[in-house]
């Protein structure tokens, strides 16, 4: 077991050695830097060269990863070992996208193969349901209301937005309802025809407060026009608790499974994305799975020095723990990826936002940075000022697609030029020759601020799957380096529990003495207005 305190000291020595050295100086001293710190997987280019890391520091990071037993932990992940000790579960989301003829090195592992077969059977159910509903409603199409929150919404919403062609005339229209705030639900229902609407209720437990509350509104709306019997045929459940969904009144043939070995934030590859399959077609969803599997194969087989998820994790740990940078800003220069920052907020911060190690001890060092971001180039006119001249530097991750899905060549070239310019500006900064010292100081940009650039050949189902799988594996690698469990979320569970306890108090119940004075006052205000 690695002694992380020793490794932080060793890495800090590399930081001290590089103090006063600019990243541009490292470029000059390392002619092969682009070979060492960029990698192409599935025609997608990952460029880490603008991070302030030289070859000596990178070797130390790789040695740290090896000392944590990372390769063994990766093998355990794909073998179906218990990698979520607090809940005594494996994390077999990679099995959801493993085609029979292209195993990820786990053909001899019974747990992985059993999970893969379950996933394959469920995806076939999804394919049949997609065909049935499309035939049922015909060319006039229908609306799908996807009701879910967190991992039950963010992934499918991201995928559909990213992969819907701008000139699509597909007759299936998908709408997402996540927040328990009913205002958007009312706005949505005013636009829908209950006779041509299907509702997908997505909840692993089928007890999620937000999902069931919104589901009740939609169910009443359907029943008011269709009657209870016909309305029930328009409900589909995706859950790990099918018995509860059936008691809710959904027919067994309309209940699709997910499993306790798939966490919500890792479930986009499953029946959770039924709404995406309905809108895009099952064939395109299969391409999405194939892209993820390509990254799985790379992650398992590539040496760490050429391994994209490992390099993503290492430069992240260097930035967070060695350089002390508090934030990681994700900026896709593609409007179709506008939901990616929110997806990554959950994936990274819910997975690694921990201060306690998997063995119950205090971690004692920083873990996940604040994940935030927005879409370029619009964000250049919002928060990029702080990225260039603010007191606290952030890592910036730029993501773009070389080939757009439109024919407006001038617009796309301008978009790409802006992305590359921002990456270059963060690296080089700007010195001015103003005679006025005060003005000169205000206009100068320090530069030497780290960024990663990811260039997709195009935004397709395959490249999106490859990208999201890379992020999943990065998160796992960082959890190994930091020593935390990436697959539980007890902080989220606490909030759910307290909300359930407070709801009857807001509804007029007696407030017990154990409720703090602030919450007591606020409950009174909510009751009284």
Structure, briefly:
The chain is an alpha/beta fold and 529 residues long.
DSSP strand content: 5-15%
Largest sheet: 6 strands, mixed
Strands across the major sheet, in which order? 1-2-11-10-8-9
Low-confidence runs: none
Query: Rough shape?
Result: globular
Mind telling me the CATH class of the largest domain? Alpha Beta
CATH architecture group name of the largest domain: 3-Layer(aba) Sandwich
Alpha-carbon Rg, integer: 25 Å
CATH homologous superfamily of the largest domain?
A: Glucose-6-phosphate isomerase like protein, domain 1
Q: Helicity level, as a percent range?
A: 40-55%
Plain-language structure description:
The chain has 529 residues and is of the alpha/beta class. The chain has three domains: 4-15 and 32-79 and 302-430 and 450-482, Glucose-6-phosphate isomerase like protein, domain 1 (Rossmann fold, 3-Layer(aba) Sandwich), CATH 3.40.50; 129-284, Glucose-6-phosphate isomerase like protein, domain 1 (Rossmann fold); 490-528. The protein has 20 helices and eleven strands. The strands form two sheets. It has a six-stranded mixed beta sheet, sandwiched between helices. The longest helix is centred in the first third of the chain and has 28 residues, at 110-137. The model has no long low-confidence stretch (mean pLDDT 94).
Features:
529 residues; Rossmann fold
Topology:
Layout lengths: L3 H15 L4 H7 L3 H4 L1 E4 L2 E4 L7 H13 L2 H10 L30 H28 L4 E6 L6 H10 L8 E6 L5 H7 L7 E6 L6 H24 L2 E5 L2 H7 L6 E3 L16 H7 L1 H20 L6 H15 L4 E6 L7 H13 L17 E4 L10 H6 L5 E9 L5 H20 L8 H7 L7 E8 L2 H22 L7 H17 L10 H12 L1
Parallel strand pairs: 3-4, 3-5, 5-6, 6-7, 8-9, 8-10, 10-11
Antiparallel strand pairs: 1-2, 2-11
Helix pairs in contact: 1-4, 7-11, 11-12, 12-18, 13-18, 14-18
């Amino acid at each position: 077991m690695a002694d992380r305190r020793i490794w932080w000291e060793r890495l800090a020595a590399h930081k001290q050695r590089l103090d006063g050295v600019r990243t541009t100086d490292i470029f000059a001293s390392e002619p092969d830097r682009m070979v060492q710190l960029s990698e192409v997987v599935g025609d997608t280019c990952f460029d880490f060269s603008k991070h302030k890391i030289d070859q000596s520091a990178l070797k130390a990071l790789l040695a740290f990863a090896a000392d944590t037993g990372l390769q063994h932990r990766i093998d355990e992940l794909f073998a179906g070992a218990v990698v979520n000790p607090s809940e005594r579960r494996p994390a077999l989301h990679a099995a959801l996208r493993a085609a029979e003829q292209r195993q990820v090195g786990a053909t001899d592992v019974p747990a992985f193969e059993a999970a893969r077969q379950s996933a394959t059977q469920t995806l076939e159910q999804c394919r049949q349901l997609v065909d049935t509903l499309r035939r049922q409603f015909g060319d006039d199409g229908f609306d799908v209301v996807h009701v879910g929150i967190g991992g039950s919404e963010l992934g499918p919403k991201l995928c559909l937005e990213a992969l819907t062609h701008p000139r699509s005339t597909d007759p299936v229209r998908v709408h997402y309802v996540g927040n328990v705030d009913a205002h958007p639900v009312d706005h949505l229902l005013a636009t829908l025809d209950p006779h041509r609407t299907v509702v997908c209720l997505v909840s692993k437990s089928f007890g999620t407060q937000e999902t069931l509350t919104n589901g009740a509104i939609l169910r009443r709306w359907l029943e008011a026009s269709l009657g209870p019997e016909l309305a029930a045929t328009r409900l589909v459940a995706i859950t790990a608790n099918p018995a509860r969904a059936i008691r809710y009144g959904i027919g067994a043939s309309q209940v699709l499974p997910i499993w306790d070995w798939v966490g919500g934030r890792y479930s986009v590859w499953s029946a959770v994305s039924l709404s995406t399959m309905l809108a895009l077609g099952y064939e395109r969803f299969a391409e999405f799975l194939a892209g993820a599997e390509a990254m799985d194969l790379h992650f398992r087989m590539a040496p760490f020095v050429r391994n994209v998820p490992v390099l993503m994790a290492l430069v992240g740990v260097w930035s967070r723990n060695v350089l002390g940078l508090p934030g990681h800003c994700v900026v896709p220069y593609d409007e179709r990826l506008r939901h990616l920052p929110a997806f990554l907020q959950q994936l990274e911060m819910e997975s690694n936002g921990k201060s306690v190690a998997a063995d119950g001890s205090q971690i004692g060092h920083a873990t996940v940075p604040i994940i935030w971001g927005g879409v370029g180039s619009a964000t250049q006119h919002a928060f990029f000022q702080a990225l260039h001249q603010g007191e606290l530097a952030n890592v910036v991750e730029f993501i773009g697609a070389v080939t757009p899905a439109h024919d407006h060549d001038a617009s796309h070239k301008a978009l790409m030029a802006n992305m590359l310019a921002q990456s270059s500006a963060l690296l080089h900064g700007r010195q001015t020759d103003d005679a006025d010292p005060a003005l000169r100081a205000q206009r100068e940009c320090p530069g030497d601020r780290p960024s990663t650039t990811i260039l997709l050949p195009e935004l397709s189902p395959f490249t999106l799957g490859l990208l999201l799988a890379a992020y999943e594996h990065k998160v796992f690698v960082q959890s190994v380096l930091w020593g935390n469990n990436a697959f539980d979320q007890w902080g989220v569970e606490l909030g759910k529990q307290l909300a359930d306890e407070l709801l009857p108090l807001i509804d007029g119940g007696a407030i017990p003495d154990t409720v703090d004075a602030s919450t007591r006052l606020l409950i009174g205000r909510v009751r009284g207005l």
